[in-house]
Amino acid sequence: xxxxxxSTEAPAKPARSRRVAGRAASAKTLEPRAPASRAERxxxxxxxxxxxxxxxxxxxxxxxxxxxxxxxxxxxxxxxxYLHFKDKESMFEELVRTVIVPLVGRIHAPPQPxxxxxxxxxxxxxxxxxxxxSTRRGDIVRLIVAEGPRFPAIADFYYxxxxxxxxxxxxxxxxxxxxxxxxKEKGLARFPQIVVAPALIAxxxxxxxxxxxxxxxxxxxxxxxxxxxxxxxxx
Amino acid sequence: xxxxxxSTEAPAKPARSRRVAGRAASAKTLEPRAPASRAERxxxxxxxxxxxxxxxxxxxxxxxxxxxxxxxxxxxxxxxxYLHFKDKESMFEELVRTVIVPLVGRIHAPPQPxxxxxxxxxxxxxxxxxxxxSTRRGDIVRLIVAEGPRFPAIADFYYxxxxxxxxxxxxxxxxxxxxxxxxKEKGLARFPQIVVAPALIAxxxxxxxxxxxxxxxxxxxxxxxxxxxxxxxxx
DNA sequence: TGACAATGACTGACCAGTCAGTCATATAAC
DNA sequence: GTTATATGACTGACTGGTCAGTCATTGTCA
Lengths: 235, 235
Prior knowledge:
Two copies of one chain form a homodimer.
Chain A: H1 38-60, H2 67-74, H3 78-84, H4 88-105, H5 117-133, H6 136-147, H7 152-180, H8 192-208, H9 217-229
Helix pairs in contact in A: 1-2, 4-7, 5-7, 5-8, 5-9, 7-8, 8-9
Chain A binds a DNA duplex (30 and 30 nucleotides) through residues 3, 15, 18-19, 21-22, 35, 37-38, 41-42, 45, 66-68, 76-83, 87-88.
């Protein structure tokens, strides 16, 4: 197999000619082609670049991704990228940050006062599958695993913002579960990773082996919760 | 005829202490560049290239690794690489295969007739930590996760040779454990991944987050086994 | 000596990053 | 309201460097 050819599969916006630019469609609700203000259009561009870059980085990894492809996919000239990002490397870092941050907000499971701990953990698991495993964010997780060692800044950030916070939250839940007698295995509080592990496996499986053997992530997580909390009553 | 080679008056074999055992005894009496037969020397070269390439690929990933670096590290000219491998891509694939194959042999845990299932699984876990998590093979696993999507051939191979076999073996153990009453959670037989997940997490953690928060993999796996088999008797 | 192995300078493709120039928009002046 | 000027977002051809892969030459073994 020779070098992977440029990705033309994407709806690469035809380089819109300058004369028409003023009428370029914008995503405004009513006006299909309202000429947004400079700031607005600039923000739109930046967003388009981020989306495109994400696709390319996920598909090819950092080193093999060409800025020309990102530019084409974003419907933008290559130079424009450098108006928004310092260079390829910091673009990658900033990119991951940008996409991860909103994900962090959803991490801390709100432990409803009334419910059981199992309900809370189940909620986290459901959220994880819906929001991460079955979306592009799952690929981001894989991307971090893949490029982390070469981007210590990203690995650090990810540990600080996601891993440590997520595990801390999970540990709190586990301790509550132990206190309430829902969880028998006390050692779990020291290794919340065990509770999370199958979810991560699901993400990796998804992008590597799913075509060989589809994995029912929901069912797997259910079994895992049964393992931790004991068989669920409703069978 | 002075050697034009810059700094390598003898085929520099820098960091290659791995399999010198056989030659170690005679290393003092014989010239380092022992007059081995052509075939032997060729095989040695090939092995050196594989070792070097592995180091580089692990450190940099596929795309960012330079063949010049591999050649230098292997104490070999770049052209020599092409006497042994078709191109960079097939070198990478063949490489992973070469390193994985001996690993596969160790996968099928020998279920000792006398012991408990827990003993058997513990043996697998111990083997995993010794042979994979704490060696360079762990990095290979990460490498596969990282580059898998861009090297379907490798992902396929890995699934066929390692994942499916490993999971099948684990499933057999689980079913035995269920039959013997050692394992309560029957659903585990459908998702052997759950049993293996923490081990994989340990590998990933190792290369990404260990400097932030060292993870005691042995202890974590023990807790996980407690979770599956119930508290161990000896406490 | 003949056959084969090894070398490393070389080539050509490829690509990150640059920058002089363009033009739509914003602002000021009339 | 209309025209003139200023701004800066955007462009894409270009540069300089890098690197996979080649091959004529050199070295080595049988």
